[in-house]
Specification:
Strand content: 25-35%
Structural class: alpha/beta
Order of helices and strands: EHEEEHEEEHEHEEEEEHEHE
CATH topology: L-arginine/glycine Amidinotransferase, Chain A
Number of strands: 15
Number of domains: 1
Radius of gyration: 17 Å
Shape: globular
């Protein structure tokens, strides 16, 4: 079940990977979020607060002109709310992932059904035994970065790389530090030539040729901001030092409270599936 909306997709979805976000899919949190494993030193998530904070994210997106398609959770996995894992959109369609966690794989089928209902074309699939989660992919300019960490496997990364290269992208793998849940947890592209990244959480050599805004130790997850438009992001309000650093670098920051998701290592960029940018 989804909220009522009207979508008018043209022939292009992501015409500019770091351009203005026009349409995004969110998956509402369910009570299952309380069973998620918190980061070291963090308390457990509370469903009621998560639901309220997710509503603030939705309304913030709408305020900035983003069409929000909100999908109800249908499984019992606490991380189903991480909508960006299910697919990655290119200009001509969405590539459906094959998630690392077996308990979450049905989420891809549900998302594909939702995209079919919206007449969003499917550009490809990660087939078994390949594994890749969408939140381990970042696109900046003509480069696709793929995180290499605890999730995904070489077959999944190679399959996605083949799809990306067929669309003219250069593909770069980014080795993640131990304990990093996903590439988008510690990095985001804010312009075709600029990456925000948490210090020591991703191999900096992978970003050679790009300008980097490096965030201080202890606030690395602030780099997992959700891009609204070039150099304009939504970020978690709790990372005040990192937010100040981004603003000094000329990045506009809309700071909101997403602490219930931060507890589980989920960042704003991981909570949204960007369907259309221009």
């Amino acid at each position: 079940m989804t909220t009522k909306h009207e979508v008018g997709f043209g022939p292009r979805l992501i015409s500019a990977p770091t351009g203005r976000l026009c349409t995004a899919v969110l998956v509402k949190p369910s009570i299952a979020i309380e069973s998620g494993t918190s980061l070291i030193g963090e308390p457990g998530a509370f469903y009621a607060r998560a639901l309220e904070q997710h509503g603030v994210l939705r309304n913030t997106l709408k305020y900035f002109g983003v069409e929000v398609i909100e999908v109800e959770s249908r499984g019992d996995d606490p991380y189903e709310v991480s909508a960006g894992d299910a697919a990655v959109a290119f200009e001509d369609g969405s590539v459906m992932m094959r998630l690392s966690a077996m308990s979450r794989r049905a989420e891809v089928d549900r998302m594909q059904s939702e995209l079919a209902r919206l007449d969003v074309p499917i550009a490809g699939h990660i087939e078994g035994p390949g594994l890749l989660d969408g939140n381990d992919v970042i696109v900046a300019g003509e480069t696709v970065f793929i995180g290499v960490g605890a999730r995904g496997n070489e077959i999944g990364r190679a399959g996605f790389a083949q799809l990306a290269r067929a669309r003219g992208f250069r593909v770069v793998e980014v080795k993640l530090a131990a304990g990093v849940g996903a590439l988008r947890a510690v990095a985001t592209a804010v312009a075709p030539d600029t990456i925000v990244v948490g210090v020591d959480k991703a191999d900096s050599s992978a970003f050679a040729g790009f300008k980097t805004v490096v965030l201080a130790r202890g606030e690395e997850q602030a780099a997992g901001a959700l891009l609204l438009d070039e150099r304009h992001v939504i970020a978690d309000i709790r990372y005040r030092t990192a937010l100040a650093a981004m603003r000094r670098a000329g990045i506009g920051v809309e700071a909101i409270d997403l602490y219930e998701f931060t507890k589980l290592g989920l960042t704003p960029s991981m909570l949204a599936l960007a369907l259309r940018r221009e």
